[in-house]
Amino acid sequence: MRLAPVAAVTVTMLTACIRTPASRIPELPEQVAIVWKRTGIERPAPDSLPQALRAAAPVEWMRAGYQSHASVVLVDVFRMRSPAAALEARQRWKHEPGSVAFHHRDLFVVCSSPMETTQGLAEFSAKLEAEWLGTGSR
């Protein structure tokens, strides 16, 4: 009997289905609105997840920094289990001075800065969303 090749193909297919998917957070742009340059990107440890998001259990977390002249904006991107979970995270997010948030599909994004005004963060956030996720201007 020649079942060995069939068994090998079956095991390979099952392994491919079980594997954890690669990062689904699209790469953040190197620059936003021409003047904001990305200064770094990291994947923080899950144990440092903000308390407000622990119950939502994001699947993935990426953080990037952007700088324009003397201003700095941190961008935290959380990939949630579903678009509904991203919407729920957005609805539950407590707005704090120096931060704005948006969601797109299964992504929940928080832009924060101790230097930028809320209006400045809202403009940065809208440009980031449009340029990075192709949602058009807001």
Q: What structural class is derived from the secondary structure elements?
A: alpha+beta
Number of strands: 6
Element order: H for helix, E for strand: HEEHEEHEEH
- Note the total helix count: 4
- The strands making up the biggest β-sheet line up spatially as 1-2-3-4-6-5
Strand content: 25-35%
The profile of the biggest β sheet is: 6 strands, antiparallel
Helix content: 25-40%
> What's the rounded overall pLDDT mean?
85
Which residue ranges are poorly predicted, with pLDDT under 50 across at least 5 consecutive positions? 6-20
Approximate shape? globular
Distance between the termini: 64 Å
Q: Taking Cα atoms only, what radius of gyration do you get, to the nearest Å?
A: 19 Å
For the structure shown, list the relevant keywords.
138 residues; six-stranded antiparallel β-sheet; 6 strands; alpha+beta; 4 helices
Explain this structure.
- The chain is built from four helices and six strands; from the N terminus they run H-E-E-H-E-E-H-E-E-H.
- A six-stranded antiparallel β-sheet has the order 1-2-3-4-6-5.
- It has 138 residues and is of the alpha+beta class.
- The radius of gyration is 19 Å and the shape is globular.
- The chain is 33% helix and 28% strand.
- The chain has helices spanning 4-18, 51-54, 83-92, 118-133; strands at 31-32, 36-42, 60-68, 71-79, 99-104, 107-112.
- A hairpin with a 2-residue loop joins strand 3 and strand 4.
